[in-house]
Amino acid sequence: MKKNKILNFIFRKSINKFSTFTIFAILVAIALFWISFVDKEPGKKKYEIASPSVTNTDLLIDFLDVGKADCAVIHDKDIIIIIDGGLKNSELSVVGYMKDNLFGDSKNRNINLMILTHPHADHYGQLVSILKNFKVYRFGTSQSRVDMLDHKGYEKLLEELKSQKIKIEILKAGQVFNIGRVKIEILGPIKEDTKNINNNSVVLKLSFKNKKFLFTGDAEKAEEKDLIDSGQDLSADVIKIGHHGSKTSSTLPFLKKVNPKYAVISAGNHYNKISIYPQKEVSDRLNLLGIKYFVTKDVGTIRFAVSQEGELKIPEVSEFREAA
Known about the structure:
Layout: H1 2-37, E1 47-50, E2 59-63, E3 72-76, E4 79-83, H2 94-103, E5 110-111, E6 113-116, H3 121-124, H4 127-133, E7 135-136, E8 139-141, H5 152-163, E9 168-170, E10 176-179, E11 182-188, E12 203-208, E13 211-215, H6 221-229, E14 238-240, H7 252-258, E15 262-265, H8 280-288, E16 292-295, H9 296-299, E17 302-306, E18 312-313, E19 316-319
Parallel strand pairs: 4-6, 5-7, 6-8, 8-9, 13-14, 14-15, 15-16
Antiparallel strand pairs: 1-19, 2-3, 2-17, 3-4, 10-11, 11-12, 12-13, 17-18
């Protein structure tokens, strides 16, 4: 009996030591992951960005810093086009940004075209607010099957569009819009994906003069392959990287087909979760192909411009330096 007690005592001690060691090892692993992969100061920008010098005849393309979400605003004189609307709870108010940076004191507060690439909350989040503050003439989105129980915000968007009697246009490959001096070509989706809404993303090319911008929503590998197989001209000077820099998108064959000089990644915190985007696989592909890329979580809102002569004007980025 005494021998059994001694053995039990030794066993319990061993288990306790093993548990303590296991917990310690897990904590160390978490700490190393945090140091290596997570932004130690979320919200603080790592770089300083300077928008290009522009004139009132330039086309402006702004990629807004709305966290791990998407929102792009195209401004050409009195023409406004908005692609996606960021998260509802993003630190940046899209309405506020447009009032401060685009409309100013102008009485013209019209949006010529609003496009929702696909019905996910990080893309439709602020669209209702935008609809309530500005006059929207046209609204287009993809054909997607949505469970309204999971997307109350999308249901509210549809209700707001209905109340304003704005027709919902289902965008399909092959459609072309000429709005002012801007040409928009709908390249995808090629076919409906009933299982993955990301692969129903509206993919569009915006052209002005001889410069082209490709917007990809959250299109993943399957839709990228469809686009390549379609034989369409996917080339662009600037690409908005798909799915916030997730490795599910931006495959090497697709990037080679687009062959951009510059890329924009809209990435940041998402519902108070620290961002791990862009993922290393995507950064590696961009670096391999020599594509210079800008990340909103690092520099904030990113502005490109195109002059009426067709010159592409890019933002200038420099690292913040500690005070001496």
